[in-house]
């Protein structure tokens, strides 16, 4: 599901009476489901699109695509929370955790600029863990993690675990599932994510070793900044990583 809204934006270098029309992203969601679940999921996605903190969309597109290959079973990341009281404290935590994961300071600081920028990317940036070079083919589109789901029984177990922590929301569940797919990809060392939702101020760092680490107060409430960065090995095969993240179906079931 993709929900968007058309707004009139004016470029500072160009004066125009009518302005230029730009589609801004409101909401998005995706999952792998059985045919019998489709009707319910469509209703859930429409409700989410129409009741989002970023505003009411004027366009909601739902795409249903048949997957013709058996999904790979991948493990669910463990999850934890590092309690931070401010964006400054969250930034220190991010630097510490990513440094421990083997990411260079240069790459960390560049990634922080990506996720705190005024314009959020449509997808994720892909950055070399040492030299900080950006290696995604399209800097505007970025990388879209797709074709991911969770075993039905495993979903119930995850919901129970999250409920005991008071964080059993669709946002958290979907983030853990996505982070689990990214972490399962050979060549990806870690991930940094900050939501562009102005009402959601908890971001995360994830990796195979760290698990899914929630970081509250990663930005100030009301901020539309956000983004996602995948740190990859300097010698990684970027083409294979993109193929896995965007095209290979996976189901969390271990």
Quick recap of the structure?
By secondary structure, this protein is α/β, with parallel strands linked by helices. It contains six helices and twelve strands. A hairpin with a 3-residue loop joins β9 (203-207) and β10 (211-215).
Give a description of the structure.
The chain has 254 residues and is α/β, with parallel strands linked by helices. It contains six helices and twelve strands. It has helices spanning 38-50, 87-100, 105-115, 152-165, 170-183, 238-247; strands spanning 2-9, 20-28, 59-61, 72-74, 79-81, 125-128, 148-150, 188-194, 203-207, 211-215, 227-232, 250-252. The strands form three sheets. It has a six-stranded mixed beta sheet, with helices on both faces. The radius of gyration is 18 Å and the shape is globular.
Low-pLDDT sequence parts: 11-18
Helical proportion, percent range: 25-40%
Number of helices: 6
Percent of residues in beta strands: 15-25%
Shape descriptor reads globular
Measured distance between first and last alpha carbons: 27 Å
**Mean pLDDT metric:** 90
Present the secondary structure layout:
Layout: E1 2-9, E2 20-28, H1 38-50, E3 59-61, E4 72-74, E5 79-81, H2 87-100, H3 105-115, E6 125-128, E7 148-150, H4 152-165, H5 170-183, E8 188-194, E9 203-207, E10 211-215, E11 227-232, H6 238-247, E12 250-252
Parallel strand pairs: 4-12, 5-10, 6-11, 7-12
Antiparallel strand pairs: 1-2, 1-3, 8-9, 8-11, 9-10
Helix pairs in contact: 2-3
């Amino acid at each position: 599901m993709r929900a968007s809204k058309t707004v009139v934006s004016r470029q500072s270098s160009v004066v125009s009476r009518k302005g230029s029309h730009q589609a801004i992203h409101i909401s998005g969601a995706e999952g792998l489901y059985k045919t019998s679940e489709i009707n319910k999921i469509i209703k859930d996605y429409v409700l989410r699109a129409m009741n989002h903190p970023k505003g009411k969309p004027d366009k909601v597109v739902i795409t249903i695509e048949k997957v013709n290959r058996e999904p790979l079973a991948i493990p669910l990341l463990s999850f934890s929370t590092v309690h931070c009281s401010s964006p400054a404290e969250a930034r220190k935590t991010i630097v510490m955790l990513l440094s421990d994961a083997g990411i260079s300071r240069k790459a960390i600081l560049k990634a922080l600029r990506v996720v705190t920028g005024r314009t959020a990317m449509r997808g994720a940036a892909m950055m070399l863990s040492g030299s900080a070079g950006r290696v995604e083919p399209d800097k505007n589109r970025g990388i879209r993690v797709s074709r991911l789901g969770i075993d039905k029984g495993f979903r119930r177990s995850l919901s129970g675990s999250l409920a005991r922590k008071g964080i059993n929301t669709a946002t958290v569940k979907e983030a853990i599932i996505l982070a689990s797919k990214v972490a399962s990809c050979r060549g990806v060392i870690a991930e940094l994510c900050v939501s562009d939702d102005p009402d959601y101020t908890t971001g995360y760092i994830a990796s195979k070793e760290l698990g899914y680490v929630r970081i509250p107060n990663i930005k100030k409430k009301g901020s539309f900044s956000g983004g996602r960065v995948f740190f990859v090995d300097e010698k990684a095969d970027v083409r294979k990583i993109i193929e896995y993240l965007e095209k290979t179906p996976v189901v969390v079931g271990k």
